[in-house]
Amino acid sequence: MTIQTSYKLSPATKSSKNIDLLKEPILLRLGIDHDDLPAGISNAVKILGFEGVKDDAAVFSDAAGNKTEVFEAPLCILAVLLNPAHKGREKRLLDWLKDRGTIEEPVIVEWRAGKEVETAGVLIRKLAGLLASDARRMVKSNRELLALRTLNDNLQNRFATVESFIDRKGMQPFELAFSNEPVQSSSRSNVLADASYDGISQVLPVASAGVSAIAIHLDRLSHRGEATLNAQLVTLEDMSIVESWVIPLSKLKHGWNYLGLSRTLAGLRRTLNLRLQVEGADDELPLLSLGGLQPLEMFQVRDAGNDGPLLKNSLAMQIWCGMPGVILPSWANYLPAQSEKAREGGFREMPIASGILDLATLANTDEIAFEFAAILPLPEEKAVGCHPPAVGMTIGQIPAACPPKILRLSSDVVVDNDESQEVDFAIVIAANLDHARQLFSEERSVENGEGFSGWASITPGDDKRISAFINDQIGVWQNIYFATRMKTPGNNSFAWAKFRNVSLMVNG
Amino acid sequence: MLDQINRLRDQMVTQLPSDDARGSHFTPKVAVIIPAYKHSVLLAEAIESALIQEAPFDIAVLIIDDGCPYPETGEIGRTYALAHANVFYLRKANGGLSSARNYGIEFALRNFDEIEAVYFLDADNRITPTALRDILAFMKADDKVDWIYPNIDKFGIEWNGNYTTQYSRLLHLTFDNICEAGSLVSRRLLDAGIRFDESMTSGFEDWDFWLQAIGRGFLGANYPFFGFEYRQRAESMLRDSNRTREGILTYIRQKHKKLFATETLLTWEHQEAPRYAAIGMGAYAVDMFTDPTVEHAKCSLEDFVTRFWAAKTEPETFGVPPFMLWMTAAHREALTRLGLIHNLLWLGERIAEKHHFVAIRFERNNARMGIDIRTIGDTEELNDKPFGWMCTFDIFSTCADDASDDWIRSLHKPVPSPRVVEIVVSGPFTAREMQSTALSSTNALLATLGALRDSGYRSKTRNRWLWRSVYFPNRSRYFELLRHAVGAKPVMPRLPQAANPLRVGFLLPIASFGGVEKVAYAVAQALKNAGCEVHLFLFGKAVYNRVPENDGLFKTVNFLSDDYPLWGGPNKFAGHDLMMGHDEAAKAEQVMGFLAGLDVVINNQVAPVNALLGDLRRRGVKVLNYVHVLDKSRMGRDAGHPYLTLAFEHVYDAILTCSNDMVEWLHGMGVPVAKLMHIQNAASYALAAKEREAMLTARRSKSQKEKLNVLFLGRLDAQKGIERLFSSVRDLRERGEPVDWKIIGSDVMDAGAGGSWKERFAEIGVQVEPPVFSSRHLNKAFAWADVVVLPSRWEGAPLTIIEAQRLGCVPIATAVGAVDELIDHAVDGLLIRSEDDTVITHELTEALSALAADPDALKRLSDAAAVRGGSLAWEESVIPLVKQLRSWFPDRLPQSDEPALKSAEQNAVPVSPSRVPRFEVETIDEDHEDHNEITEIRPLQIAAAGSANMNNLRN
């Protein structure tokens, strides 16, 4: 049997006071005129008279005697002041409150002329009780917060241990979750050129959780040196920008280019939207490759300005997933993200992730050679080993690891073997190896966007931090170079030179 | 859609007001209703997610404490209410989730004038900060949409379900509750009084809520990026609900019976997931429909190709019709004109599921309509140019994927590689309709395939692009949901017409010229005149012998066209073999689909279909059974359909009989009188009053010195008393009586009679003439005859007597069955009451002798017979039935003074000046009050019935 409540379809009585009673504590009076109450009380709290119950609504009167029908129980009744002559009438009020599910009955206080202080005492006792219970609740909440913080710390530590283990053992799964291969199109439409100033957008076919990198495919490059490709990754369910990139066009290469996330996305799975926009180049825009015709309109490449489909194709793309801390294959043109957090302003010291340090390779292979790896990432130490030659210098590089807007590149430098001779250390921020060589050789001074720490001599047991300050920021990502040499050329035995805790100071 | 979403987002962002502006005057547009019961801690998460909404409008957050026994719930609710101006804590006595939500709705409507929508957020769920901004804008962008529901993104037990597809009521009713309660609902919907059913405390109250909305014409839509987060734990109320799912669903189906009715589901299928794609030949246009005679969606071939590949990529989200048809619109029109289009599609669907392709061919035949199904093979070659082709989406999809198209290209050959069945439709097609088009349907099929195969959308990778998990069934397979919901396979694709007339189906074993068919056609005509839409269903031989007078009578003619037994079954009842619904031979699903979409079925002696009428009745169809005659077994035992009627009496809403005799028999055998309805027989075909008068005048002016003309009309078999007739003819001829004979009928080989009756009559000098069926030939025969003889062993209430009497031809008949209800002995005919063959032969011979010798007596009998025969009319006979139908379907049949019934006047059924049809009497003529009273008090009046011979059907 259906029991369908019948409803009044038009509001019966609308009263703003009705809502007011749900927003503040009140006192109720019963059988007492408002004017009989001292102004001190009525100024302190709203006082309403309970007049009775009519058609399931309580009738309250205000100071002026205006009556209001109320359907919902007031939020917080501090007390009911009852004229002893009207004793028994409060039952109607209590029943009405009970019908509305009120568990805790309000305090009934008999109001007698000349006994105002006693009444005030009752109210104060009530308020004191509330204060005490609030305090207990607050303490309890703080305790629970403490427990959660402790739990969080434990989780962090455990996670870090696991991360370190995986890193050390090279257990870093990285898989291609989706690939939309480029197809040859007769039209060879340049979507970046066809789009409005806002660029293009592409809904991704993979859930956010686990995404580590997104590869886009370029069919033709643009050589506008100062122009950048700005990329953003947005979650459509909450419109959060989860990652962004600013990439000089000069860094892009023909074929796949990997937009690496600063960290693998975690948390609830959301729909990702990739937005791409070129800044600083009105013509000669790079040609993004497209996948085949896309019958699902949602996944057609769109104009980010008006969100209309630009073509009936999707972008050619690859989506890579992995665990936190994974690194891309060494052959990838890996373009690290500019973390969204970097936009929050202020100076921040940002450690370079061990995953990035793992990308360190020997740069001046034409000059030196060892039987072992001259440049050796040491992730467990958050360090890179850089073994100096007996004569000359060893230069290591980490490509595109230095974002725009940095102020400083810093690193601890150590010689980790007591039997070693003194070693010189230096770091450079530069666009390419030639520039780095010039700076390491001190043939010229730094130019815009470059930095050089100068050489620092370290003996075993010394602990020093060197910094390269950038000379005027430029809006492109630069390479990091680091070099070692024997202070006294000749004996490089046991010269276990290491750069540790490499970090960047970022502005904004 | 994505364009729309982002445009809206941009607009909303630019419209975001300052905090100051919002603080000045609180006028919420959206109320978030959070029922709270025992989720005291998680409640804070839900509230917080409502409070951090980034929306350019005010939002009221209503916490409805449904009498939660945990004090903490109240503490949290009160704290938030005190701390935030837009949070309200409402406490009520416990009443369940429905009552809490309703409480919130009432509060919101009562207190916030500007409210545009409410959002239902359960206390353990959450929404993202942009959710309400985006979904309100999304809803307001489409005036046809009144609620927005999310994809299901679960946390806890993590799962993401893809609910993104165009909203489908068919899916929502037949699959699952696809709309989470955490949806945004328009004020318009709430103002219409739609609320949660507070008696539903075990779950699925939200499903019921949406069904109410659907019933009131509201529609929902999915927003793919909703931002709804559903907390899934190992146990929940929903899991409890699933345990009691069947019980709750039974309640929901009962409550929303109209929504679950076959015609409603069919209509939604037609609108939302049409079953057939008819691809125009040469026109590059595609019609998509379930019922082609109803307005339907169309698209270009290019759009169709896009949809096709979208359906292949994301089949749960996008779909194309599951059956494809290549046929010109003109040929579809021709089938529609003949009432065959639905049947053809139904057959095509049935066959296409078992074979690769179905070829369709027309044959012109003015005498009959019919269906012939031929399996193409070495012995049956494919006709040169089929008029049309059908196949499933699945087979065509496989062909589109195939590396080569050699296999399908063989459809051009007489014996193609694919398994092909040809449906040959015969009927009175016009010459123009028979002309084939310039483009062959085979080429059209191959061209469509070429368009798909050459499309740039054709993908070899089969990547899924939607990342959420599949939950919905394939959009192209909603027809299976429909089948499951109505217990039928396939479902006849016939929708109600716009005016929604009452649809009455007449079920017949065969459509020849027997009495049962004649009565069925006559009743159908009378019901049509009363405003019904009548349909014919033939279960036996797929041939409808055309009666020109009945052209256009049936809106559709439907052939089951299957190996269907018309009698028997593995079960026994009172010495009768019968079928039950679960018997395989009953073909339950197929027959249910065959009869789908009717309001009323009248079974006219289709024995095995009785087994399924109970299912039909449970689905709201009114079930009537028409009983004509108590047959005899070969050894003389009473047998036949009346016994089956007893077996299945429970499922009939009413039992129609054509004789009082049958009424009494059925009542005597235990059928309640309230179920019995007598429909008095009348002449089976129409005769204009002027024509009849002319024929009667001719009879009166006939010379009295001429011989007595005696007619026998019927099968030459034992039931009709053929031996008695033969003996009488022989005796009269031997006596040299002045009698001329005309014996018209089909010869039935009767072993007991020693061979052909036709030959035996010839031996005594009487030539048997072949049967006649047309009204013209029947009139001619009756006009010629002075007397018609029926020495039958058993009968119902033969139409021959009434039709003979109408033209003044005097009946002489054995008093079997209800014959004595048609003849008043010695007044308007003569009755022979003996049961002994010799006595009957003697009495018949003597009666004919006497009449031959007494022209005055003959004239007296003839005049009385003419009055009686002319007084009967089907419009009057069916009045009790029409009244009954009107009481069952008060809004579906016009009242008696409305034009539909008056159309009966246009019918040529003659009425005697002294007997005005009763439906007119009721409204205009008080002189016939006595008759009316009698009719109302005793609806079971004297009547007559024709019969179909049980033995014939069995054979």
Assign the structural class of chain B, choosing from mainly alpha, mainly beta, alpha/beta, alpha+beta, or little secondary structure: alpha/beta
User: Total number of β-strand segments of chain B?
Assistant: 37
How does the helix and strand content of chain A classify structurally? alpha+beta
Q: What general form of chain A does the structure show?
A: elongated
- Find the CATH topology of the largest domain in chain B: Spore Coat Polysaccharide Biosynthesis Protein SpsA, Chain A
What's the average pLDDT of chain B? 87
Give the amount of beta strand of chain B, in percent.
15-25%
CATH superfamily of the largest domain in chain B: Spore Coat Polysaccharide Biosynthesis Protein SpsA, Chain A
Strand content of chain A: 35-45%
Any guess at the CATH architecture of the largest domain in chain B?
Alpha-Beta Complex
Any low-confidence stretches of chain B, pLDDT <50, length ≥5? 12-23, 897-955
CATH C-level class of the largest domain in chain B: Alpha Beta
Radius of gyration of chain B, in Å, reads 35 Å
Query: What gyration radius of chain A follows from the Cα positions, in whole Å?
Result: 35 Å
Which term fits the overall shape of chain B?
elongated
Helix percentage of chain B: 25-40%
The helix content of chain A is 10-25%
Give the strand order of the largest sheet of chain B, numbering strands 1, 2, ... along the chain. Answer: 14-13-12-15-18-16-19-17-22
Report how far the terminal alpha carbons of chain A are from each other: 66 Å
What is the number of helical segments of chain A per DSSP (H or I, 4+ residues)?
Answer: 7
Task: Provide the low-confidence segments of chain A as ranges.
Answer: 1-16, 339-346
